[in-house]
Specification:
The chain has helices spanning about 5-10, 20-30, 35-45, 50-70, 105-120, 125-130, 165-175, 195-205, 215-230, 235-265, 270-285, 290-295, 305-315, 325-340, 345-355; strands at about 90-105, 140-150, 155-160, 185-190, 210. The protein is about 55% helix and about 10% strand. Mean pLDDT is about 90; it is low at about 5-15. The protein is globular, with a radius of gyration of 24 Å. Helix 8 links the parallel strand 4 (about 185-190) and strand 5. The protein contains 15 helices and five strands.
Length: about 350
């Protein structure tokens, strides 16, 4: 509650919280696992006392500022695609995208919370929260994307609650800012989702190498093998290993031959259907399955970095009893993306420049 006229004059005062305190509060809110734990962290590390609700409001407001700054290009990486080098010196940048489920507030839960706030005569929440009506379902798929270099030392990650076109436009803008055309090799490693394929084709046609994540392929192979041979049987594991070897050493042609040889003597309609489904999946993604060439060129065939993004950007959003307004979930995700992209100090430096 101390008066800080200089902060206000500099434009860095935010509801009596200075820029430095905002940064500490935001770190505590992200690190604590919950806002209640965050207030404890804040007191122990910075000797700052704020309520759980104030910490929530501060973090969500900061997240919205981060989201706006990232989307409008005021904050971003200080590297480009030309800086992304393999150990051999070849410039290569990789892009990944995925969908991840986030717990959100349903319309019924939202109505209940509003009624409870009215009974307690609580103060009004920020406009974005008051206008949000809640979701039809308790979970919503958020879209996440990222660009990274071969050593995974340079990463630019971002996410949205919007649909494929929203993340696609952000991928396009990010690619432009990173000057993706300067890279000798432009690669995408993703799962087989049609929305990802569509956005890569329309927004990032300059990405000429598109690889199906090997582990997603193996999930499909494993499902077919279990139906065809039974769970936990030696024949099942042997077939999975043989199919994997065919994919890695012979590519799509060898894998299709292996599937067709397997399904030919099968009489069970359920088993035939399982292998036919796998065959169709492989055929539909044939242009993404040239693993022998990808491995020879030194490309990643696993989307591990993107899977890591999904965990990191949503870690603060998940947990027992957590439910989020979509705008607030996006705000917290923007803060997580800022840290994962190593842009935290960059952002706070821009906040100081704004004040000046």
């Amino acid at each position: 509650g101390t008066e800080r006229p200089l902060d206000s004059w500099l434009g860095i005062d935010d509801a009596s919280v200075s820029r430095g305190a905002r940064q500490l509060c935001t770190l505590a809110a992200m690190a604590g696992g919950s806002f209640a734990k965050g207030t404890e962290v804040l007191w122990r590390l910075g000797q700052l006392r704020v309520s759980d609700e104030q910490l929530r409001t501060l973090a969500e407001a900061e997240g919205r500022r981060v989201k706006d700054d990232l989307e409008e290009g005021r904050v971003g990486p200080d590297w480009t695609a030309a800086d992304c080098r393999t150990p051999e010196g070849v410039s290569r940048i990789t892009v990944g995208a995925d969908g991840v489920m986030v717990p959100v507030i349903t319309a019924a839960e939202k109505a209940k919370r509003r009624a409870k706030r009215r009974r307690r005569k609580a103060r009004r929440r920020p406009l974005a929260q008051r206008l949000f009506k809640g979701s039809e379902h308790p979970w919503k798929e958020f879209k996440i994307a990222g660009f990274y270099d071969p050593p995974k030392e340079r990463v630019w990650a971002f996410g949205t609650a919007g649909g494929p076109n929203v993340i696609g436009r952000r991928m396009r803008r990010a690619a432009g800012r990173l000057r993706i055309g300067e890279a000798s090799e432009r690669v995408a490693v993703t799962d087989g989702a049609e929305w990802i394929r569509g956005q890569l084709q329309t927004r990032l046609p300059m990405v000429e190498v598109r690889i199906l994540d090997y582990f997603h392929l193996m999930e499909h192979i494993g499902e077919a093998a279990v139906i065809g041979f039974g769970a936990g049987r030696p024949e099942t594991m042997a077939w999975i290993e043989a199919a994997s070897k065919a994919a890695l050493e012979e590519g799509v042609a060898g894998l299709l031959v292996k599937i067709r040889e397997t399904v030919r003597p099968v009489r069970s309609s359920a088993k035939r259907e399982a292998f036919k489904k796998l065959e169709q999946y492989v055929a539909n993604h044939a242009e993404m399955l040239d693993y022998p060439r990808y491995r020879a060129a030194g490309f990643d065939i696993g989307s591990g970095p993107t899977e890591s993004l999904c965990r990191t950007l949503t870690a603060r959003l998940k947990g027992g009893g957590k439910r989020w307004n979509t705008p607030n979930a996006e705000a917290l995700m923007a803060l997580a993306a800022l840290k994962h992209s190593r842009l935290w100090q960059n952002y706070w430096a821009t906040q100081l420049r704004k004040a000046g």
